[in-house]
Amino acid sequence: MRITGLSESEISQIEGGLKRSPRVDTIQRIALALDVSIDFLLGRYDYEGPLGDALAMESLALFLKSSKLQMTEAQSRALREIAESGSGPQSIRGWKLLVENITTYESSMKSHRE
Predict the structure, then answer these.
(1) Where are the alpha helices (DSSP H) in the chain?
(2) C-alpha span between 49 and 85 (Å, rounded)
(3) What is the pTM of this model?
(4) Cβ of 79: how many Cβ atoms within 10 Å?
(5) Is residue 1 scored above 60 in pLDDT?
(6) Cα–Cα dist 90/56, whole Å
(7) Which CB contacts under 8 angstroms, 24+ apart, belong to 50-54?
(8) Residues 106, 83, 90, 93, Cα dihedral to 10°
């Protein structure tokens, strides 16, 4: 947050999709703080190979650090295994969507069993 000059609330609104059209300079500051291109930040490019693997691991680390979800060590380990396999998302938003989908699936399976 300090690097971007943005408040925690503003970053949270952007990540959560509540602020749909952030200013260009805001996007530039976030990309600079994360050391990624604006195109990558906006999800325009996916990378393959070692760079893609590194981006998946880094975006997962940032997701876990910024997430307010209560995850068990086993859940965190499972996400790291997905990233290490080379099939993980390369953005924080991608990880958020993946975790939301997994959580929804697990809830529906639990309801179905009961």
Answers:
(1) 8-15, 24-34, 38-41, 49-66, 73-84, 92-113
(2) 11
(3) 0.51
(4) 20
(5) no
(6) 4
(7) 52/86, 52/90, 53/83, 53/84, 53/86
(8) 30
